[in-house]
Amino acid sequence: MPPVTSRKVTRHDAEATAIAALGFVASDAELMGRFLAVTGIDPQQIRAAAGEPGFLAGVLDFVLAHEPTLMRFAEASGHDPAQVMAARRLLPNGDERYETST
What we know:
By secondary structure, the protein is mainly alpha-helical. It is built from 6 helices and no strands.
C-alpha cells in the first residue's frame, strides 16, 4: 500500500493510525514488553485504555520515540512516517489544539 500524505489527516485518521500502531506493538513480544515497561500499564488494562485518546497518543509517542520502530511500523502498515507525526499532533498533548467535539 503506498503511503498517504497528500490529504489532511483527521482526528479519526489519527485514532485509526494509533490503533494500527498498538496492533503493531502488540504483535511483537519485545516491543510489547518495552511498551508495558515504559507505560506501566498492566496487560489486562490495555483493551479498556485503548478507548482513551490520551492512551492512543501515548502509543504514537512510543512509536515515534524510536526511529527504527517508527520505520518498521511505517513499512508494515503503509503509513508514511510524516503521517504518523501528523496523527500524533491531532491527539491530546499534540502541538495542535485537541477538541473532543470533532
